């Protein structure tokens, strides 16, 4: 199916923008008429990915985080969270539950596990020193008349 | 965002709004001071007022579990909705923390 709606947003890697990113993705998916559950799944997964970019990608330093999203006529959403921070040395290890590089800071190490559980697809692409791209897929079950079709 | 009440040895902390990494960073120091000041033996998180929580909330609770354990105390949670419950189970939190009704 071809994309019928898309968005892209760059914001500073600041903790207060975690809530902003959740607000943006919630607003973007509204035309799909998602259930509360689907909306919460996507919000939580985006929150995890954006927090990773801010805390780990940029390590609290300056930088931009990109959130982009699209959906097709069947309600399949593609979401990307991209940073140009320090990258992840060992992606399979980072994806394991409870793995954290900052144990003293009360990070649970559950971020990727949560993204994987709440979304239908998760792909993490990272180059040390260059940054990380997290791609997530979520299928929103369409109710009749939900999606505004493009002519 | 955070209010608390101490009864006997139990410190109850009520969280409301959205619990994410930015909020955890802002409140964990305050929580640890409260634990030290009150000398509480039991820390209860009342999460009924939360509208959102991600894995940062798991980190906050496991971190406080460590603080309370070092003091010979314990942690409990109450007011968990289905979603928060799912996150807690994913992280095996109920092996460390009691779940109250």
Give the helix/strand layout.
The complex is a heterodimer of chains A (151) and B (101).
Chain A lengths: L2 E10 L3 H14 L6 H22 L6 E9 L3 E8 L7 H4 L16 H8 L2 E7 L3 E9 L12
Antiparallel strand pairs in A: 1-2, 2-3, 3-5, 4-5
Chain B lengths: L1 E6 L2 E10 L1 H18 L3 E12 L1 H16 L3 E5 L3 H9 L7 E2 L2
Parallel strand pairs in B: 2-3, 3-4, 4-5
Antiparallel strand pairs in B: 1-2
Helix pairs in contact in B: 1-2
Uncertain segments of chain A: none
Distance between the termini of chain B: 21 Å
By CATH, the architecture of chain B is named 2-Layer Sandwich
Kindly estimate the percentage of residues of chain B that lie in beta strands according to DSSP. Answer: 25-35%
User: How big is the Rg of chain A?
Assistant: 15 Å
The number of helical segments of chain B is: 3
Give the overall pLDDT of chain B as a whole number. 95
* CATH level 1 class label of chain A: Alpha Beta
Proportion in helices of chain B:
40-55%
Overview of the structural elements:
- The complex is a heterodimer of chains A (151) and B (101).
- Chain A contains four helices and five strands.
- The model of chain A has no long low-confidence stretch (mean pLDDT 93).
- Chain A has 151 residues and is α+β, with helices and mostly antiparallel strands.
- A five-stranded antiparallel β-sheet of chain A has the order 1-2-3-5-4, with helices on one face.
- Chain A starts with a strand and ends in a 12-residue tail after the last strand.
- Chain A has a single domain (3-139), classed as Heat Shock Protein 90.
- Helix content of chain A is 32%, strand content 28%.
- Chain B is of the alpha/beta class and 101 residues long.
- Chain B has a single domain (2-99), classed as Transcription Regulator spoIIAA (2-Layer Sandwich), CATH 3.30.750.
- Helix content of chain B is 43%, strand content 35%.
- A five-stranded mixed β-sheet of chain B has the order 1-2-3-4-5, with helices on one face.
- In chain B, helix 1 packs parallel to helix 2 (55-70).
- The longest helix of chain B is centred in the N-terminal third of the chain and has 18 residues, at 21-38.
- Chain B is globular.
- Classes of the chains: A alpha+beta (151), B alpha/beta (101).
- At the A-B interface, helix 1, helix 2 and helix 4 of A face helix 1, helix 2 and helix 3 of B.
